[in-house]
Amino acid sequence: MQVYTSKAELSAFISKKKHPVFSLGFVPTMGALHVGHLSLVKAALAENTLVVVSIFVNPTQFDNPTDLNKYPRNLTQDIQLLETLSTTALLVYAPTVKDIYGSQTKSEPFDFGGLESQMEGKFRSGHFDGVGTIVKRLFQIVKPNAAYFGEKDFQQLQIIKKMVELTGLPVNIIGCPIEREPNGLAMSSRNSRLSDKELKTADLIYKTLKSVKEKFKSEPSEEISQWVRTQFKNHPLFELEYFQISESETLAPIQQKNQTKTYRAFIAVFARDVRLIDNIALN
Ligand code: PAF
Questions:
Q1: Which of 176, 204, 224 is where one domain is finished?
Q2: Whose CA is nearest to atom 6 of ligand 1?
Q3: 37 carries an active-site annotation
Q4: Most CB within 10 Å of its CB: which of 15, 35, 210, 277?
């Protein structure tokens, strides 16, 4: 597997490859790759002639230095996992912070039209400016035709679509379904930091979301939110950070249920200092 650590070398390689039928797919990641990432890479490989996977733990999207320091990093293992796909149509871009940010590791401010002030944005200050900044820079370096993101980070997906609209970058943004562990826990790099007991018990998150979906057919959203809070109240392992039912497009919290709109339920839960998020389409 070809691994590039500098944008100059990556760009030189890609521009040599370009010809009229060339289509470049891109999967941006922060490494600690798992089956969920592989499903994005497989989707990209199915639709493009060459796929770049970036592996970069982006400092500007972390509001909490402990979370940044503890974020799992293992490039060798990541490459081994990608090699299981046995393809020459895949390459890795694993830049240094300097290659991306030069001497100024800071994010650019964005106005995402209110998408950034909901949920993750409320609890992780500056997070989406960091995401917008890194994804914009990566798109400018890699110049992909299409980029693939998991729906586990549904708010991030909407933010990136908005960033593309604001910047006019010619990239098709593709959302891919959430991959889950056998017990329903959404796959995440952070799951590797859970104890066996936490991993097992974390099925509560998806079970709760599935019940929410069922309840949404007949119960008012405020009652559902109250019910979710009771599921986590005094739980020995998990602490609920937020639960919100939102309109899928604007991410605004539901007011009056409207049959012409689609809704999603979003949840964030802490297991000690490990933060887990998940969401589900309700209609
Ligand atoms: O979802 C992630 O892993 C990151 O937020 C992303 C999109 C790679 C940007 O750093």
A1: 176
A2: 29
A3: yes
A4: 277
Do 276 and 205 form a contact (C-beta atoms < 8 A)? yes
Segment 189-247, tens digit of pLDDT:
999 999 999 999 999 999 999 999 999 999 999 999 999 999 999 999 999 999 999 99
Residue 245's nearest CA partner among 213, 207, 218 is 213
The encoded tokens of residue 38 equal 């592989």
Residue 24 falls inside a structural domain: yes
Q: Is 240 in the pocket of ligand 1 (CB under 6 A)?
A: no
pTM: 0.95
The alpha carbon of 89 is separated from its chain's Cα centroid by a whole number of angstroms, namely: 23
Taking a C-beta distance cutoff of 8 angstroms, is the pair 277, 263 a contact? no
Based on the fold, state whether residues 253 and 163 are members of the same structural domain: no
Which stretches of the chain are DSSP H helices? 7-17, 35-47, 65-70, 75-83, 97-101, 119-123, 127-142, 154-167, 196-201, 203-215, 221-232
